[in-house]
Design goal:
With 174 residues, this protein is α+β, with helices and mostly antiparallel strands. The chain has two domains: 67 residues, 2-Layer Sandwich (Double Stranded RNA Binding Domain); 93 residues, Ribosomal Protein S5, domain 2 (2-Layer Sandwich). Helices cover 30% and strands 34% of the residues. The strands form two sheets. The protein has a four-stranded antiparallel β-sheet with strand order 1-2-3-4. Strands 5-6-8-7 form a four-stranded mixed β-sheet. A hairpin with a 2-residue loop joins strand 1 and strand 2. Helix 2 packs parallel to helix 3. The longest helix has 14 residues. The protein is elongated and about 70 Å long.
């Protein structure tokens, strides 16, 4: 996974947030159980920017607010082509593995819970996905981000190889 150095200012973007998962955890103390909540939130502008955050607090609303703030700090830019991804990618984080495949226009987002939330937030309209291994939302969300961050702009790849974009996608024309 490559790290991108440029910081993206969340205040310049029109971000929409989506709660992916809320978990209630109990801590056993002398007087009984103390409950707290953890929340995973995805924020995105629907135009190639997305961030994921995890927040923990005693109340659900506080956990969601913390997660949203963390997500806004972790925003990354994803390269998209016509509402889908340019090529197939595989992401892995812990035991969570995700395959993302580009789809033709009109297919829609074929994805399970956590992956669907990220795809919608990024602005992907057509994609085929599959979760392999663990379906733990924490790992699946991070695996999806790992996969999306591997994507590079096809124009940039073609320039690096000294080809046109058409040659890149059709193979060598000899």
């Amino acid at each position: 996974m490559k790290k991108r150095n440029e910081k993206i200012n969340p205040h310049e973007l029109d971000l929409k947030e989506k709660v992916v998962y809320i978990n209630r955890v109990a801590k056993v103390v002398k007087g009984g159980r103390r409950f707290s909540f953890s929340a995973i939130v995805v924020v995105g502008d629907g135009n190639g920017h997305v961030g994921v955050g995890l927040g923990k607090a005693r109340e659900v609303i506080s956990a969601i607010a913390k997660a949203t703030e963390k997500a806004k700090k972790e925003i990354v830019k994803i390269d998209l082509v016509n509402g889908t991804i340019p090529y197939e990618v595989f992401g892995k984080y812990g035991a969570g593995k995700v395959i993302l495949k580009p789809a033709s226009p009109g297919t829609g987002i074929i994805a399970g819970g956590p992956v669907r939330a990220i795809c919608e937030a990024v602005g992907i309209r057509d994609i085929l996905t599959k979760i392999i291994g663990s379906s733990n939302p924490h790992n699946v969300v991070k695996a999806t981000l790992v996969a999306l961050q591997q994507l590079e702009d096809p124009g940039k790849i073609a320039r690096n190889r000294g080809m046109t974009i058409k040659e890149l996608f059709t193979g060598f024309t000899e």
